[in-house]
Amino acid sequence: GMHEERRGVFISFAIGLASLLMGMIFGAWIMMSTEAAAISSVIVGVGGWCVYSFAKRTYRRFSFEEHGDIDDFVYAIVSRLPRLPRMNGTPGSRRPSSGSSLPEEKKEV
After folding, report:
1. Is-contact 13 33, C-beta < 8 A?
2. Any residues with CB less than 8 A from the CB of 18 and at least 6 apart, and which?
3. CA angle 99–105–109, rounded 5-degree value
4. Compositional bias of type Low complexity: which residue ranges (predicted)?
């Protein structure tokens, strides 16, 4: 399924991005003077390295076991959710139940 196609999609994206950056460098050397082409090549190279290192870090951070069960992901998400207090009474009722610890309203006479 999708797990098997994931690696191919990432590789295709990386090849496309590298090709775009190489095209930018070649275009710079064709259209610019030597000094401007060298400076722009360095800028494109540094930008490409930053994208590569960020992608590598993100891939490692979000990697998971290929043959893992989807229940593992659901449990990991649910176990990190905050626990909400239980409500007494019927669903949709806005009044607290009789066992509530809320203070009673005092009427002035």
Report:
1. no
2. 48
3. 140
4. 91-101
> Measured between alpha carbons, how far is residue 59 from residues 10, 55, 62, 95 in Å?
10, 6, 5, 49
**In which residue ranges of the chain is pLDDT below 70?**
1, 3, 64-75, 84, 86-109
Q: How many CB atoms lie within 10 A of CB 29?
A: 15
The two three-digit tokens of residue 53, written as one number: 């290192």
The pLDDT assigned to 20 comes to 95
Q: How many helices (H) and strands (E) does the chain have?
A: 3, 0
**How far is the C-alpha of 14 from the C-alpha of 7, rounded, in Å?**
11
């669903």: which residue's tokens? 91
Residue 91's pLDDT is: 60
First-residue to last-residue Cα distance in the chain: 73
